[in-house]
Amino acid sequence: LPQPVPQQFASDRRASGIEGLLALVGPELQRVNQTILERMQSPVTLIPQLAGHIVASGGKRLRPLLVLACARLAGYRGDRQIRLATAVEFIHTATLLHDDVVDKSDLRRGQATANAVWGNQASVLVGDFLFARAFQLMVEDGSLAVLKCLSDAAATIAEGEVGQLLTANDPETTEAAYLEVIRGKTAALFAAACEVGAHVAARPAGDAAALRAFGDNLGIAFQMTDDVLDYTAKQATLGKTVGDDFREGKVTLPAILAFQRGNAKEREFWRRTLGRMEQTPEDLGQAIAFMEAHGALSESIARAGTYAERATETLARFEPSPSRSALESTARFAIERVY
Amino acid sequence: LPQPVPQQFASDRRASGIEGLLALVGPELQRVNQTILERMQSPVTLIPQLAGHIVASGGKRLRPLLVLACARLAGYRGDRQIRLATAVEFIHTATLLHDDVVDKSDLRRGQATANAVWGNQASVLVGDFLFARAFQLMVEDGSLAVLKCLSDAAATIAEGEVGQLLTANDPETTEAAYLEVIRGKTAALFAAACEVGAHVAARPAGDAAALRAFGDNLGIAFQMTDDVLDYTAKQATLGKTVGDDFREGKVTLPAILAFQRGNAKEREFWRRTLGRMEQTPEDLGQAIAFMEAHGALSESIARAGTYAERATETLARFEPSPSRSALESTARFAIERVY
Questions:
Q1: Which segments in chain B show pLDDT lower than 70?
Q2: Do B165 and A131 lie within an 8 Å CB cutoff?
Q3: Which of the pair, A202 or B108, is modelled with greater confidence?
């Protein structure tokens, strides 16, 4: 069995602009990491083995960091955020395990995925376990507002993932359909993680809505940037293979824009490669060339930038503070990863 | 796409002894069925399509019936049990969807499984959606006791399912390990469904524990009987192929007992067929012959009967009533399905 790699990748941390968050809540994040290790235990030892593989494989812990920083921004100084940040990371980990089954991928963050090592069956079931454990943690916390926030997010995530299946192989997917998918599969959990910060601090509904909007816009910016990186990043930076989305027939914003702006011959290229999945080794290079010719990558980056700006603006209602600055930096750097 | 089959199979109802439950809470079950249809809706239309396929494919609704009957037994006369019975059925349906992925099975209750029609990916994600929706329903209800009961059950179910993976292909699996697996994968949700009845009625902890013990023992009796039926039932009665467990290398009580009681040559038969999965078309018949020679099937039925009796005994603390009688009949008939 492969050994867990407990340290986070320094490159990941730099590339995502979360230094500010780590400076703010680093000791709390260590407590979250400790709680993750404690609460993924089970007498069925395959569960912590498999969960540990993905939990420890170099993730940035961005969602728990958002819980911690937003709780801090909202003025909360107790302990509840530790357990709830753990719950959020467990939900995220469960979706990763189920994604790996869905995508038949065998590499994540540069390492073999759990399903490649232990099989689809165990990945599905350990994902289910972590999802259930996340709800047990929320029940221990005892806030129905938090339970509502995260059970709503979980339903929306599943809707987004199913929506992604439905838009796959369809190069005529609209930008609106794409936005709906990434709002579900990515932004919903970012939004919920940030909103939890307001709930533990018992802030009024307006503040909860603002933190939720911050997470929503940040999540969209983050996913759009990821979708650009899938066509542009070096493997060493991204920790996954360039061109995954293309090879899987996933239709993301750069491909949507290139299809819309392409001529008849180009559109047939997209229908053949993404629609009918008839691909040659040269097609990825050709796809990137078409995208660059139509400014599809730079336009996608610009749109991500707009969402990142909106995220920052939603924080204006809070007094300037180190936590506000750290969250603003996270939004700014979410898109700077592409440069 | 296949059409949902909304009616329940009359044979199923007769075979499981749930007539008493239906006579008791039939109108409430209709409200549960209506709530199931309403709450599995989503703007992502593949979700209700796929969920409807499995929800409507002739299940007995045994777990919702237990919620309804136990709430009645506990003296509750309000409306909360409708929504919570729906939540329990959604958790059950989610595990069926994920089981179908796990088992690579393509027939359930005589119909094509969802994953055979729509693919593994959609089955995993729609299962996730139903699981999340179950928690949304519980949050709407607002009882932390119910949320604890069912999130604990969900974690235990996942542990039982992973345990089943680990005991597969191992004919030396102990009876204790088998009991642990079925207690998790089946009895945990039966126990939680019954306990919910005590919570909505705000009964004292002793009553909640008794209803929980009833469900636990009933679930074990029910699963042991299913495991016998997998070797003895006619396809028309069971709605699934005889010998599924054998062909999948699942190690259940009849095989465990036959292995323990077999001679060296027989043990090599079990190691070859269940362990190394080297099977010929004649092996299922030979397996059943070995089981019969050692009384493994009748002994399994007798053990199921012991658990059914224990279930009945736990109801003694409640006053005699139509609901108590109906629940007692359910326990009695759980094992009479094999005759």
A1: 1-16, 58, 102-117, 234-241, 339
A2: no
A3: A202
HEC string of chain A?
CCCCCCCCCHHHHHHHCCHHHHHHHHHHHHHHHHHHHHHCCCCCCHHHHHHHHHHCCCCCCHHHHHHHHHHHHCCCCCCHHHHHHHHHHHHHHHHHHHHHHHHCCCEECCEECHHHHHCHHHHHHHHHHHHHHHHHHHHHHCCHHHHHHHHHHHHHHHHHHHHHHHHCCCCCCCHHHHHHHHHHHHHHHHHHHHHHHHHHCCCCHHHHHHHHHHHHHHHHHHHHHHHHHHHHCCHHHHCCCCCHHHHHCCCCHHHHHHHHHCCHHHHHHHHHHHHCCCCCCCHHHHHHHHHHHCCHHHHHHHHHHHHHHHHHHHHHHCCCCHHHHHHHHHHHHHHHCCC
Residues from chain B contacting residue A154 (CB–CB below 8 Å) = 128, 131-132, 135
- pTM here? 0.91
Are residues B131 and A136, on separate chains, in Cβ contact within 8 Å?
no
Chain A contacts to B (CB-CB under 8 A): 42-44, 46-47, 94-95, 98, 101-102, 120-122, 124-126, 128-129, 131-133, 135-136, 138-139, 142, 144, 147-148, 151-152, 154-155, 157-159, 161-163, 165-166
Query: Which chain B residues are Cβ-neighbours of A166 within 8 angstroms?
Result: 44, 46
A324 vs chain B: nearest CA distance in angstroms?
31
Nearest C-alpha neighbor of B125 from the set A180, A114, A97: A97
Q: Is residue B7 packed enough to be buried (19+ CB in 10 Å), middle (13-18) or exposed (0-12)? A: exposed
ipTM of the complex: 0.91
Separation of alpha carbons A66 and A315, rounded Å? 13
Nearest by CB: A129 against B46, B129, B158: B158
DSSP state string for B58-127 = ----HHHHHHHHHHHHTT--SSHHHHHHHHHHHHHHHHHHHHHHHHT--EETTEE-HHHHH-HHHHHHHH
Instruction: Return the pLDDT at A111.
Output: 59
pLDDT bucket at A181, cuts 50 / 70 / 90:
very high
**How confident is the model at residue B239, as a pLDDT?**
55
Q: Token pair for residue B186?
A: 């089946």
pLDDT in tens, A13-33: 444 578 899 999 999 999 999
